[in-house]
Amino acid sequence: MNKIDELINAAKQAAKNAYTPYSKFKVGSALLTNSGKIFTGANVENASYGLTVCAERVAVFKAVSEGQKKFKAIAIYTNTKDYTFPCGACLQVLYEFSPKIQVLITNKSKKSKVFSLSQLLPYPF
Ligand code: THU
Fold first, then answer.
1. How much distance in Å is there from the Cα of 123 to the middle of ligand 1?
2. Up-side HSE of residue 96: CA atoms within 13 Å toward CB?
3. Pocket of ligand 1, candidates 22, 84, 93: which has the most ligand atoms within 8 Å of its Cβ, to mutate?
């Protein structure tokens, strides 16, 4: 399996661990570091809705807290026909560490759309 397929599969697996009693919308992410490691994430919701953390930021914070700060790509998976784009907060967090990261957005057919971060966040802070 190539690294991209591995990343998409990891994101799909991670979505199973999403904690989503409120929205029921499960998102999985998988982040590929420059060193070839994969960190996964899933969205974690809270009764105080605003405390929810998206799947993408969970993966970034897991990686950074383990000393990995340079990323090549992130895959985002939802079991839907539509493609789920990362929110602005997650894009800004990705930009902090890897302005040139590739963002793969994957739907239930496991087809991906690929974007550069600058396409999704053209005017970062
Ligand atoms: N969510 C993510 O985890 N990532 C995205 O890219 C979009 C939204 C989550 C947050 C919340 O748990 C649920 O999806 C509904 O907004």
1. 22
2. 12
3. 84
